[in-house]
Amino acid sequence: MSNPPPSNLFYQTRLRRPVLARGEGVYLWDSAGRRYLDGSSGAMVSNIGHSNPAVLAAMRRQMDLSTFGYRLHFENEPAEALATRIAQRMPEGLDRVFFVSGGSEAVESCLKLARQYKLARGEGQRWKVISRFPSYHGSTLGALAVTGMSLMSAPFAPMLREMPKIPAPTCYLDRDGLSHEARGLRYARLLREEILAQGPETVLAFIMEPVGGASTGALVAPDSYYSEIRAICDEFGILLISDEVMSGAGRTGRYLAGEHWGLRPDIVALSKGFGAGYVPLGAMVADRLIAETVIDAGGFVHGHTYAGNPLACAAGLAVLDEIDRLDLIAAAARQGAALKGRLEGLMACYPFIGDVRGKGLLLAFELVADRETMEPLPTGLNAHLRLVDIAYEAGLIIYSRRTRGGRIGDHFLVCPPLIVSDSEIDEIMEKLDRALALFAAEAGL
Ligand code: PLP
Fold first, then answer.
1. How far is the CA of 243 from the centre of ligand 1 (A)?
2. What is each CA distance from 45 to 85, 220, 247, 271, in whole angstroms?
3. Does the model's pTM come out above 0.90?
4. What is the ipTM of this complex?
5. Region 225-232: what's the mean pLDDT?
């Protein structure tokens, strides 16, 4: 079988890709036996690599015991153990874990808990959640309302309660003579202005990705940004929701990306790296006081059937065990620094690479027409599609986006599993170099 069946609605015409046969470590094989280096961990998911034997063994053990028990009928040990384990690594006081099955569900849970908390405190007039543009927080309608990607939300405009957005801190595009840190403060203060414009008494929360994901291409703000955002939220009694769906579980070289700046959010959304591609798994982690206020006021009005099922949680526990056993958070920092240096090195050969950014193994590069002005490449080149296709042909998977309507152009995430070795980094670079040369020749750059 060379193509997915047409009855599979997930199948998109443009992505006429081969059929996946198997995976091992950083590699995937298609049904024709071709090997691909998974240079984006899927969608920044497969942090511990494919077919990890310890995780598969833990899943098999759990499958022999039970795979499902409805949460209103049973507690289950893997869920209890995983909640404790996640809470132990969170900032002080953030220790109430609510399981879901993915990133969008985690974000929905954060929004709903924030709202119920403010309701319980008699602040029912607060409902607006400010977010950033561009940003990605998920595809369900609530998460989409805070997502800053117009192409994704436009078809649903009449059904969405679109939330206010402030610009993401794209400091690297600014040519204003300010220092990097001064720019960080300027972007953070846009939140203050937006809160005042909206009416502080109506604002419930601010949600952001501490290190950006696909929408911005691993955008990192100046250090000054993070503490200023926290201070502004505190000033107006607004909850800070940190979307660590992509950046959590060690990908940036810390357990949570926010730890790089000592960020203390009120609620955190987690997913990708916790299930690591073995199971659909996500979690909301909330400040104890927030969660208990909601429980005391009658309980959290929210939930999904598959949430906290024993199989997903047993796999999640085994993933966290492997992250510790293989010291993968330190590896993300070490290999991330090496890979980032190598990507920066490509800038000498390819003047159309405008920026290399990110933390740990959440890394991206952006292609531009002019490095000085950071003018994006012409849309007609379709660089975000073409370079990915050329790399794919060379056996390297990378992840790309072009943020239309924003200032960020074609960007490419290079985010291999945290187990990536030195020689595998060599292979990524050799294939990427070849793909960039072919792309440059084709595009006349
Ligand atoms: N939040 C962030 C930061 C993400 O990167 C994603 C997915 O890419 C989501 C939320 C949504 O997660 P999911 O696709 O699992 O619903």
1. 9
2. 20, 19, 10, 8
3. yes
4. 0.99
5. 98
| Mean pLDDT lowest among 5-19, 71-85, 319-333, 409-423 | 5-19
Please tell me the distance from the alpha carbon of residue 295 to that of residue 169, in angstroms, as a whole number: 36
Structure tokens of 278? Answer: 């073995």
User: 360: Cβ below 6 Å to ligand 1?
Assistant: no
Does residue 398 contact residue 388 with C-beta atoms inside 8 Å? yes
Mean pLDDT for the chain?
95
Q: What is the pLDDT of residues 90-127, one digit of tens each?
A: 999 999 999 999 999 999 999 999 999 999 999 999 99
Separation of alpha carbons 104 and 70, rounded Å: 21
Determine the residue of 110, 137, 304 to mutate for testing ligand 1's pocket, defined as the one with the most ligand atoms within 8 A of the Cβ atom: 137
**Rounded Cα gap, residues 236 and 204, in angstroms:** 10
pLDDT (tens digit per residue) in 134-144: 999 999 999 99
Please indicate whether residue 103, judged by its CB atom, sits closer than 6 Å to ligand 1.
Answer: yes
User: What span, in angstroms and rounded, lies between the C-alpha atoms of 237 and 201?
Assistant: 9
What does residue 298 show for φ and ψ, rounded to 5 degrees? Answer: 125, -5
**140, 246, 268, 304, best to mutate for ligand 1 pocket (most atoms within 8 Å of CB):** 246
Q: Is 309 exposed, middle or buried (0-12, 13-18, 19+ CB in 10 A)?
A: buried
> Cα dihedral angle (203, 169, 418, 47), rounded to 10 degrees?
40
According to the model, what pLDDT value does residue 407 have? 81
Find tokens 């972007």 and name the residue. 187
Domains of the chain: 20-51+327-443 (3.90.1150.10), 56-325 (3.40.640.10)
Across 112-126, 278-292, 396-410, least confident range: 396-410
Residue 248 C-alpha to ligand 1 middle, in angstroms?
11
The CA distance from 344 to 335, in Å, is 14
Q: Residues 94, 291: contact at Cβ < 8 Å? A: no
Upstream peptide bond of 134 is cis (omega within 30 degrees of 0): yes
pLDDT tier for residue 1 given thresholds of 50, 70 and 90: very low
Q: Which atom of ligand 1 is nearest to the CA of 280?
A: 15
Per-residue pLDDT, 78: 97
Q: Please give the C-alpha separations between residue 241 and each of 115, 253, 417, in angstroms, as whole numbers.
A: 12, 21, 26
Q: How far apart are CA 216 and CA 246, in angstroms?
A: 12
Q: Taking 90 as the threshold, does the pLDDT of residue 406 lie above it?
A: no
> Is the CB–ligand 1 distance for residue 329 below 6 Å?
no
- In angstroms, the Cα distances linking 35 to 223, 311, 396, 397 are 40, 29, 9, 10
Classify 231 as helix, strand or coil.
Answer: helix
